[in-house]
């Protein structure tokens, strides 16, 4: 697989930003006590996706040396990468405008630069939220579609991969929003209601675990796919798969959120440890998907 | 791009590899390397050695299959990779951004990334030589005369007849890419 760490981080950050936007939208529908989460999710989405996209551009060959070539990326409607280019081009500015619409004023000397734009954004809030939601969903699904369309790596060529990436995007985005929200709440000495998020997150992680297992089961149907699955569950990648993706990223967080929910949000430390695990697991998953990709024609298959 | 040469003849190119005549000497790959200045550590053409474990029992000359339904063409976001109407899949170096998606998408592993050029590369059927009326470098060099350029648009072409008769078959048609390289295996 010629795609390396830049692409793994990009897949992670793209999903995370999309998930953070969706978390923000859910928070805004759930009442004013979730304003901190709403703002945190909206604020981090744009920069996260923009940073991931920068890594993607940095990984290009000729496109980095001659950036004007990037306009060609919009031209092939058959290519998932062209879809992605359009999605990112629209999503990044919309996410930033959405953040302006829902966050409070900055320090006065900065606020005067954004104030006119913010006024427009606040007025167009509903439209911005709808656009941000649609684009976030598209971005979260697209990162999986990018890898699942070509027939070259059986582990990846499965419709379950976009589903897995979508669920993981929602989960990592929620975690990022809660972590950032928690930091903000501490600074402002306000109580952050983590109760609702723990419950939502239990559901998400349980679904993700199920999709992950289904994806591995479907993946092992072909010879190259089963080599991939073996690398993950019992081969060279197994330590990272079991420890980071499964234990730290899925099982651990479920336990943490269950305990935290039972205590009605009284152990934020435990919840935050769960969120950190989700983030580490989400990043490791993107890496492993690329590292475990075994080509369809290998060794004896030739 | 036009399929007509200066004489106005239409072409539909394919490659026929007669594995009965291949001795696995790699002369084709060496000629390709010299002709196309392929950087060390990469290949446009190579010999896949015979394996005893259920795979091919003979050496296989391996290079881009010039698929009619090419995944590399489908996924290339810039349309830098495209299929000419004479069947040759080429890369337009002036459009390519070097995203490597085509390399990821090719199920035959036929592409590599040239870090120095910032571009992917692969067999282009020696398109410059063809356009100049010459045979591809590998075909010209082949010691055992195992390689032949076929023109399916030419009813009298002998190599094309081996494809039409079904004597020469594509590798891994189950991948659904409709390759244009055909192999004669077994007598
Ligand atoms: S063999 Fe690979 S590079 Fe060549 S046309 Fe087919 S998909 Fe493209
Ligand atoms: S590396 Fe170039 S030829 Fe390959 S998919 Fe990207 S833009 Fe197209
Ligand atoms: S046709 Fe040309 S580029 Fe292709 S393998 Fe032969 S020598 Fe190399």
Question: Your description of this structure?
Answer:
- The complex is a heterodimer of chains A (302) and B (187).
- Chain A is mainly α.
- Chain A has a single domain (5-291), classed as Formate dehydrogenase/DMSO reductase domain (Formate dehydrogenase/DMSO reductase fold, Up-down Bundle).
- Chain A contains 11 helices and no strands.
- In chain A, helix 4 (80-102) runs antiparallel to helix 6 and helix 10 (238-262) runs antiparallel to helix 11.
- Chain A is globular, with a radius of gyration of 20 Å.
- The model of chain A has no long low-confidence stretch (mean pLDDT 93).
- Chain B is of the alpha+beta class and 187 residues long.
- Chain B has 6 helices and 10 strands, in the order βαββαββαββααβαββ.
- Chain B has helices at 27-36, 71-75, 101-105, 127-131, 137-141, 158-164, and strands at residues 13-18, 45-48, 60-63, 81-83, 89-91, 112-114, 119-121, 147-151, 169-170, 181-184.
- In chain B, the strands form 4 sheets. Chain B has a 4-stranded mixed sheet. In chain B, strands 2-3 form a two-stranded antiparallel ribbon.
- The relative contact order of chain B is 0.25.
- The model of chain B has no long low-confidence stretch (mean pLDDT 91).
- The interface between A and B is large, with 37 and 42 residues.
- The structure holds iron/sulfur cluster (3 copies).
- Residues 64-67, 70-72, 89, 106, 108, 110-111, 122, 177 of chain B line the site of one iron/sulfur cluster (SF4).
CATH names the topology of chain A as Formate dehydrogenase/DMSO reductase fold
* Count of all domains of chain A: 1
State Rg of chain A. 20 Å
- Strand numbers in spatial order across the main sheet of chain B: 8-1-10-9
CATH class bucket of chain B? Alpha Beta
- In terms of per-residue confidence, which ranges of chain B show pLDDT below 50 for 5 or more consecutive residues? none
Helix content estimate of chain A: over 70%
Q: Please, what is the average pLDDT of chain B? A: 91
CA-CA gap between termini of chain A: 18 Å
Q: Can you summarize the main beta sheet of chain B?
A: 4 strands, mixed
**Count of helical regions of chain A:** 11
Average pLDDT taken over every residue of chain A: 93
CATH H level, superfamily name of chain A: Formate dehydrogenase/DMSO reductase domain
Shape of chain A: globular
Nearest-angstrom radius of gyration of chain B?
A: 16 Å
What structural class do you assign from the helix and strand content of chain B? alpha+beta
How much of the sequence of chain B is in beta strands? 15-25%
Helix content of chain B: 10-25%
């Amino acid at each position: 697989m010629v795609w390396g760490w830049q692409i793994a981080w990009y897949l992670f950050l793209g999903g995370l930003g999309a998930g953070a936007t969706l978390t923000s939208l859910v928070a805004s529908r759930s009442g004013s006590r979730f304003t901190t989460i709403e703002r945190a999710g909206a604020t981090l989405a744009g920069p996260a996706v923009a940073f991931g996209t920068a890594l993607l551009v940095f990984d290009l060959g000729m496109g980095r040396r001659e950036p004007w070539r990037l306009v060609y990326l919009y031209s092939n409607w058959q290519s998932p990468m062209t879809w992605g280019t359009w999605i990112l081009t629209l999503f990044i500015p919309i996410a930033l405008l959405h953040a302006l619409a829902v966050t409070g004023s900055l320090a006065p000397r900065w606020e005067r630069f954004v104030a006119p734009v913010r006024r427009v954004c606040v007025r167009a809030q509903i439209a911005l939220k709808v656009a941000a939601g649609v684009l976030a969903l598209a971005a979260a699904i697209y990162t999986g579609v990018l890898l699942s369309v070509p027939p070259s790596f059986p582990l990846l060529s499965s419709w379950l991969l976009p589903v897995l990436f979508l669920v993981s995007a929602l989960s990592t985005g929620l975690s990022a929003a809660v972590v950032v929200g928690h930091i903000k709440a501490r600074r402002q000495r306000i109580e952050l209601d983590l109760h609702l998020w723990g419950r939502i997150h239990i559901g998400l992680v349980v679904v993700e675990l199920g999709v992950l297992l289904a994806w591995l089961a479907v993946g092992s149907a072909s010879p190259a796919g089963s080599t991939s699955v073996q690398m993950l569950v019992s081969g060279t990648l197994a330590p990272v798969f079991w420890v980071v993706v499964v234990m730290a990223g899925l099982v651990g967080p479920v336990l943490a959120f269950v305990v935290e929910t039972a205590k009605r949000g009284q152990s934020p430390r435990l919840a935050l440890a769960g969120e950190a695990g989700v983030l580490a697991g989400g990043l490791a998953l993107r890496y492993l998907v690329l590292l475990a990709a075994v080509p369809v024609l290998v060794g004896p298959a030739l | 791009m036009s399929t007509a040469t200066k004489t106005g003849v239409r072409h539909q190119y394919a490659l026929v590899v007669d594995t009965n005549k291949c001795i696995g000497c790699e002369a084709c790959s060496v000629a390709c390397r010299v002709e196309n200045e392929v950087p060390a550590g990469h290949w446009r053409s190579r010999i896949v050695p015979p394996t005893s474990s259920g795979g091919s029992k003979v050496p296989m000359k391996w290079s881009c299959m010039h698929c009619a339904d090419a995944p590399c063409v489908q996924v290339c976001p810039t349309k830098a990779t495209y299929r000419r109407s004479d069947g040759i899949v080429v890369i337009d170096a002036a459009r390519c951004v070097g995203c490597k998606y085509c390399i990821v998408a090719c199920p035959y592993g036929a592409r590599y990334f040239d870090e120095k050029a910032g571009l992917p590369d692969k067999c282009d059927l020696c398109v410059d030589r063809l356009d100049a009326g010459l045979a591809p470098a590998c075909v010209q060099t082949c010691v055992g005369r195992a390689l032949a350029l076929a023109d399916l648009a030419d009813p009298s072409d002998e190599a094309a007849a081996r494809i039409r008769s079904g004597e020469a078959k594509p590798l891994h048609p189950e991948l659904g890419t409709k390759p244009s390289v055909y192999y004669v295996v077994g007598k």
